[in-house]
């Protein structure tokens, strides 16, 4: 096979994601006919058809599926290497925007301070992102990276350091029967509506923050769906249900009309740093290193 043409590979990746010649061309800023030309050239190099196309649909062939699986990590590594070299030449400078949900805890703030000390030429900005939209701000470019509650199962996002694994607590009104308890079992959640995040957060992520069944299979009543942590805390204080929070968040949110009761039998909550799959700048790598170092200390 002759020398590789990076444009042909980029064309194939765009087409594999869009499954539409016109949209692939728009992504690459070329015409639809140019997409067809690049694909045909790549298929000649490979020696077989990678894409089945008719007037009504576009689909990868079995070989195209395999080629995509093999190509994606190699292409990402190549882009990362080029970006890393470029960033190294420029140094860590500019502006880094870091998002957080609800509370920017001690670990996050320690990482921010460590980053500023190591990279004084880079300004770091922190911004709260909605509880109910953990991934949207990164996708829309409103922040460069974000600290979010796990789990994260988004194919276009990369999960960096995972930290702050904490026991879960249930925030309830001081008038709730659970408020006098020193601890709860996960099965007790069947007796309390759970306040949870609203859409557009993915269903799997919302279910992790406010499960619909206990580990033993008992149904858990659904409480109000909220967009922000403060909204959820306020509704819990008003007796509208309970809200699962990690222990440090409960400490930060302490107030006279709320009780925070530890819950046994649930997986611990955890936080992770996310970025877009195609973003691998020196600033992001440096902040990830700072966060990992603080979390491990």
From TrEMBL:
InterPro entries: LysR_HTH_N, LysR_subst-bd, WH-like_DNA-bd_sf, WH_DNA-bd_sf. Keywords: DNA-binding, Transcription, Transcription regulation. GO terms for cellular component: protein-DNA complex. One of its GO terms (molecular function) is DNA-binding transcription factor activity. CDD domains: PBP2_LTTR_aromatics_like. The keyword Acyltransferase does not apply. Residues 4-61 form the HTH lysR-type domain. Transmembrane segments: none annotated. Belongs to the LysR transcriptional regulatory family. This is LysR family transcriptional regulator.
